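Is this the right way to post structure tokens for a design question? Let me know if I should format differently. Anyway, here goes:
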């Protein structure tokens, strides 16, 4: 019996060591980097290969160029950096507006109405929701105010994906309970673009102007955390990153929007479904786009140390 117990202990220790060697450790330091997580230095897999892009298209549908902007896959080695644990909130952005005099989030399109600010204040009850109706330049200005930057596309994907090439921040299989996405509210599987389109047409479009189908408070889905502890890297809102929408080196596919001045947005949002929530998925938006489905988070190099929690994301 003693021998069996010893063998079991050795096996359990070996399994723990294997898991710890395989999975990145989540780093946080609330004293020096309030509201941020540290992503360790080292290589990671970025993008997807052509076979994966075609497999996703066969599974979900739509045009091939929904998937090929992330091709090819390649290994990239990054230095350590810090990134916000969650998307920047309305409350944090309000502090920036009040301190700097920067314009408040706004847009005149009807579907933006539930998210528009009034007298320098976000909509009541949405203080802990991600800020939206912000352009690429607005997001850059906020991060600069904090002494930070928008994350590069490489930083964003490593923070979302870890080092093992997973499809979603939590693993390889979609789970609608781990993020703020369309299927969480649909009550029915939205496992193809045709099903999502039909559901949106019949159920969702008529309520697009209501906050009941909009953003969630940041950090609402802790089980959707990335390997580093970053939250909401899938769903809630797309996020601006500091990258032009251009092909990856060695890309075998073109795209009609390459070279047209678009910036990359990442992570998917609250009204789209699984294909857009993958860690490798790339979409684009005009730099002056202010919509209820795009927000952002900030990043900084390893030497950076924010001075106070007041400029944090919560």
């Amino acid at each position: 019996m003693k021998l069996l117990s010893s063998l079991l202990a050795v096996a359990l220790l070996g399994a723990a060591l294997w898991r710890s060697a395989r999975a990145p450790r989540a780093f946080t330091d609330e004293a020096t980097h309030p509201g941020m997580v540290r992503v360790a230095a080292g290589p990671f897999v970025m993008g997807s290969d052509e076979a994966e892009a075609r497999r996703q298209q066969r599974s979900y549908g739509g045009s091939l160029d929904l998937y090929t902007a992330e091709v090819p896959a390649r290994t990239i080695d990054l230095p350590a950096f810090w990134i916000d644990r969650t998307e920047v909130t309305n409350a944090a952005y309000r502090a920036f507006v009040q301190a700097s005099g920067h314009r408040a989030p706004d847009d005149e399109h009807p579907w933006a109405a539930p998210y528009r600010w009034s007298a320098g204040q976000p909509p009541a009850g949405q203080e802990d929701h991600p800020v939206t109706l912000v352009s690429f330049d607005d997001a850059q200005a906020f991060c600069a105010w904090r002494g930070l930057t928008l994350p590069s596309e490489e930083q964003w994907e490593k923070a979302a994906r870890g080092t093992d090439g997973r499809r979603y921040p939590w693993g390889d299989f979609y789970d609608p309970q781990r993020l703020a996405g369309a299927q969480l509210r649909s009550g029915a599987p939205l496992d193809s673009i045709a099903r999502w389109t039909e559901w949106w047409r019949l159920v969702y479009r008529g309520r697009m102007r209501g906050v009941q189908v909009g953003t969630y408070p940041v950090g609402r889905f802790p089980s959707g955390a990335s390997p580093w502890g970053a939250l909401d890297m899938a769903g809630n809102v797309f996020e601006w990153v500091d990258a032009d929408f251009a092909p990856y080196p060695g890309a075998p596919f073109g795209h009609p929007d390459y070279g047209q001045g678009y910036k990359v947005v990442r992570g998917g949002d609250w009204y789209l479904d699984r294909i857009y929530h993958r860690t490798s998925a790339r979409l684009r938006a005009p730099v002056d786009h202010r919509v209820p489905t795009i927000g952002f988070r900030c990043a900084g190099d390893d030497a950076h140390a924010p001075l106070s929690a007041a400029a944090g994301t919560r």
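Format looks fine. Someone answered above. Worth noting: The CA atoms of residues 246 and 258 lie 5 Å apart. The longest strand covers residues 238-244.
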